Amino acid sequence: MAEIPHWRVAMARKSAIMMVALLSSACMAGSMAGSPAEAQSRRGGTIQPFSEAERNQGAQAHAQILQEFGGEYPGPQAAYVRNVGQNIAVQSGLSTARTDFTVTLLNSPVNNAFALPGGYVYVTRQLMALMNNEAELAGVLGHEVGHTAARHARQRQRAATRNSILGILGTVLGGAIGDNGGLLGSLGGLLQDNAMRAAQLATLGFSRSQELEADDLGLRYLQGAGYDPMALSTMLASLAAQNSLDVRVTGQDARSIPEWASTHPDPASRVRRAQAAASRIGVTGGNTNRDPFLNSLDNVLYADDPRQGVVEGRDFLHPDLRLAFTVPQGFGMMNGTTAVTISSAAGQAQFTMLPGAYGGNLEAYVDQVFRQLGGNNQNALTAGRVQRTTVNGIPAAYASARARTQQGEVDVVVFAYEFARDRAYHFAALAPAGRVAAFDPMFGSVRRLTANDAAAIRPRRIDVVTVRRGDTPAGLAQRMAFRDHQLDRFLVLNALQPNAVLTPGQRVKLVVYGAN
Q1: What secondary structure letter does DSSP report for 315?
Q2: Quick one: which of 38, 51, 63, 119 has the most CB atoms within 10 Å?
Q3: What is the largest CA-CA distance in the chain?
Q4: 334 secondary structure, DSSP code
Q5: For residues 33 and 158, what is the distance between their CA atoms, to the nearest angstrom?
Q6: pTM, entire model
Q7: Distance separating alpha carbons of residues 369 and 365, to the nearest angstrom
Q8: From residue 310, how far is each of 16, 162, 198, 277, 313 by CA, in Å?
Q9: Is residue 369 within 8 Å of residue 417, measured between CB atoms?
Q10: CB 330 within 8 A of CB 252
């Protein structure tokens, strides 16, 4: 959740964000039929170079992606990723000029990678931190270039015309709530109004065949660039392990987590296929470039940037805005540039603020949020009387409404807090009728941070260390900058099994607290 100026322009950017979501080629699962382009690439046909229209599409969305995903990471890692990405991208046949590909390392704490038409390829610093060698980085970037080469985004745009992202949102939330800019559209804007969530929803447009085709193309590019083709399967395995760990950390069973509540769909089912495909290539070995990769990764920012707030277990803490809240057990959080999204199988909420200056009237603020939820159909959502209260000494106000959907009724609650005469924030929560009380502990947990509490929040960074004689996974894990699951986090970060034995001289990654 970024500083106030970012929030105040969020709603004005919604249409551009939806365009980005439709164009971007994020890397996981979905549902759409195949195409002639897919069949051609599977047969080994010639890839059509970029068109001018595709270049323009990517260029128009690039600035928006940077704004919504925290910008380009401001460190030497950005140049390293760009070099690896351009080397792998020219294997695609889309262009022979490295400079035709814009490869960007994003300053985002979410495991993600995606691409836009016209040669724009992205990977987050968080996903880079999960990797263990350069070949894995090349495999992920090659997979995304593969989506571009097969024109999967073009196919998804056609499907999105028939089934909009907001329609998909209505489905996963339990029914189509309103229509044509009414409650559905506004809830979509509220609960999904950042490119991070929109890009994730856009992944629902990919079919299994498209994902597998992108894997196959990525493997071909790895081979052409001289990398170990097994790297894509090891990266998919790490991502599957991270997804499983994320589920355990939030205290939920994996089967209870809907895909829309996860930072990424589980890629575990693709691991064995990628291994078999790499074996069929018939190339043994290949470069992994582990040491150059670890050298570059050392000291990279990990998880949340304190300037945008941090997630510590079930707590969200923002040192600059001097606020905090706690989510209920079993709920997960995702910190974005415009809002914090809170999700579980029981419901979904966002913590954010309205664009524009706060006028000092909380009742009017709550009413305005509900008006935005109603969108063009002002009768779609009728809120009850706004109630005033105080939460941990902070003036607050709230109201609720019930809406009928195709699959039953849902409750919507808006809970707003006045932190200063010109500054207010709010939750907007959505749950099946009668179940929104699950958010009550969260509504009551909002509090101010003291100066000392704010100063104690430090960034986490990757620290690459060399194993010494006597070091064990359990011993090194105690240095991990987390309150819980230290050993599990260490093992997943380093792609190690629970019974792993470390060797002196081996290099491993830790997550440690850095200086502010």
Answers
A1: E
A2: 119
A3: 70
A4: E
A5: 11
A6: 0.77
A7: 6
A8: 27, 38, 21, 40, 10
A9: no
A10: yes
